[in-house]
DNA sequence: GATTTGACTTTTGCTTTTAAAAATTCAGAT
DNA sequence: ATCTGAATTTTTAAAAGCAAAAGTCAAATC
């Protein structure tokens, strides 16, 4: 019975994820999710306190997917450069794949619930941690200088993230940037990181 | 007589600049500008086709101020690092000083008039040119590697600009970021550029 | 003829209104 | 403890009205 309950929770999560990924938060209604599952709308509220929490759960889910994916990919990688390229590519792939889910957090930046806000902070910290550990390995191997990695990782991440913001101007129009734009951004991020890493070499 | 006409045009420009710098584009009316000068509103339209053109003229004016200021400051500077720091500081000072004037272009990013759009593109190109010539001098002096400076300058500028966008989230609320935020951004930009430049060294 | 203006017209940017849609609650059924 | 239908509350979005601001122009002034 409790197992069955968990299954239902998961089903809701999956269905919501599909809807959010396709139509975004604003254009997805609780009624639609319920209908997809042939559940009553009220049942959704039995498993999730409100729409926002459901969204947060979905977001957490996909963010974990990215984190695991990156962690897995980095296992076999040796050099700092290679590792950073992997991270950048995975990140970009992720943004492309879940654009409509992520869009809401960008649009709402300011007034997000504490829950969501914390989730984003955690996600950022995780990303920073990954970058940091990549650099850390470089330092240990004598490849990179011994600098304040906490700070450097943050700066590096900010540079990469910002690059995307500069190019993608119209966040309001909820229009997904085209492949060319994404590719151009990724190319710049790679080039920047190549120079950046070189600047950290011993 | 024509000289007097030019003077009036300039007076309008100055008054508009003061208003725009203090209240921003949206909160400044043509009637107010006219009243400040004891001109009739219609006279403003004799010298400028519309409010947008007046704004563009003001923006062009302040942008030129920045460009000249930077060019002047760079005359005496030798090393790449020093030069870049100067550019970053001047840029930030400029943003602080004319925040309410610049705000409009950021808010309206998408639907700006061709005129304004071109002005921003030109300004960006100018900034890129400055960075490029700084790097160029570094290359000539044998300080930096010989790379595609056009591309590198763009990437460098994007990284710096983006950094600000990442930190300043609420462009909508038309709230001026506080000194601490600006300082934090500038500090990161400086650190980033130090590593970046080191990454370009021969 | 180049400037300048007051009076006039058109647009734009708010409220306010309001109807529908969506979120959320809840008493009671399973 | 799970689940639902029906009812309630909140949001959203379109329409209407209105005041302020943008923009025009014929006539006056220099």
From TrEMBL, chains A, B:
Q: Does the UniProt entry include the keyword DNA-binding?
A: yes
- Report whether ATP-binding shows up as a keyword of the record: no
Against Gene3D superfamilies, the record matches this protein to: Homeodomain-like, Tetracycline Repressor, domain 2
Give the UniProt keywords, A-Z. DNA-binding
Which residue numbers delimit the DNA-binding region? 29-48
Q: Its domain of life?
A: Bacteria
Q: Which residues form the HTH tetR-type domain?
A: 6-66
> PROSITE patterns this protein is in?
HTH_TETR_2
PANTHER family, per the entry = HTH-TYPE TRANSCRIPTIONAL REPRESSOR SCO4008, TRANSCRIPTIONAL REPRESSOR
Annotated protein name in UniProt: TetR/AcrR family transcriptional regulator
User: The organism's lineage?
Assistant: Bacteria, Pseudomonadati, Bacteroidota, Sphingobacteriia, Sphingobacteriales
């Amino acid at each position: 019975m409790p197992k069955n309950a968990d299954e239902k929770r998961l089903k809701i999560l999956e269905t919501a994820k599909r809807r959010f990924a396709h139509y975004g938060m604003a254009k997805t209604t609780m009624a639609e999710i319920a209908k997809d599952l042939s559940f009553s709308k009220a049942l959704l509220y039995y498993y999730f306190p409100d729409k926002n929490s459901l969204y947060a759960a979905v977001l957490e889910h996909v963010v974990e997917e990215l984190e695991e994916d990156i962690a897995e990919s980095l296992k076999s990688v040796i050099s700092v450069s290679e590792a950073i390229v992997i991270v950048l590519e995975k990140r970009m792939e992720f943004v492309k794949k879940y654009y409509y889910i992520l869009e809401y957090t960008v649009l709402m930046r300011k007034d997000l619930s504490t829950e969501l806000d914390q989730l984003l902070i955690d996600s950022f910290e995780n990303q920073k941690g990954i970058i940091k550990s990549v650099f850390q390995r470089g330092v240990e191997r004598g490849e990179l200088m011994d600098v304040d990695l906490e700070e450097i990782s943050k700066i590096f991440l900010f540079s990469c993230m910002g690059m995307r913001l500069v190019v993608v101007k119209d966040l309001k129009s909820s229009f997904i940037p085209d492949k060319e734009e994404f590719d151009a951004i990724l190319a710049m991020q790679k080039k920047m990181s190549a120079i950046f890493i070189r600047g950290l070499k011993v």
